[in-house]
Here is the input.
Amino acid sequence: MKAVKALAVFAFSGLVFIHGCVSSDEMSVLRNRIEGLEQQLASQDAQLSSTASELKSKLGQRTQADEKIRSQSAELYATIDQIREDLSSLRGRVEEAEYLLKNQQNNQQQAGGEQVQQLEKIAETAGRNEGRIRRIEQYLNIEASAKPAADAAGKPHDESEDAAYNAAKEAFERGEFPQAREKFEGFLKKYPKSPIADNAQFWIGETYYREKWYEKAILEYQKVIESYPKGNKVQSSLLKQGLSFQNLGDKASARLILSELMKKYPQSSEAKIASQKLKEIK
Here is the structure.
């Protein structure tokens, strides 16, 4: 810009030098052209300055934007790295949980197998015990739930009497002890003179014995001994009284009852069992 302006001044000086050869009008035209050029150059200079300032501003903004982008990029990369670390940690936890779950399932399967074996052993033992109980009942002359025989006069029992007794005995064998007790008590109220009334009374004692209510069982067995002294359940009642006292921890009473049983009925199967029990009671 300065070079152009200097060139215009130089040209104007040259024109002044040759003034003698140029008219005044031509000189005025030249001045006007020079001024126009100066104004045009000044305008262009201003535009260049404005453009330079604008470019500089935009360049500064671009630099700030680039720095902001670089900062955001750095933060983004840091976030991505943190996410990767979290994912890695999460995978480790998942693998650990899967391992523990697998071990737990294996342990449960193993424990389940052991429980099945234990249940099978319990069932097997229960079966053996049930067989032993049946043999003991047979040994003690404790009848199954069959129809009672004819009475001493040779007259058959009433079928309703038989049905009532059998219903009570079947309830007992199903383990429904309160229901069985209620049925036996009802049987005794309805058929107090029945030839199997002593059996019904004995089974009432048995319901308490199975429920481990030994005090009540002893009292019910005593009713058999006192009310039916010539019946076939006296020996069994004495034996079960002795066992009830033993279960209650009253060893003295247990020894006394079992000894009385052996003394009164020495040839009975109950006396043999009493003898074995006395050896166990110390």
Summary: The domain at 155-280 is CATH 1.25.40.10 (Serine Threonine Protein Phosphatase 5, Tetratricopeptide repeat).
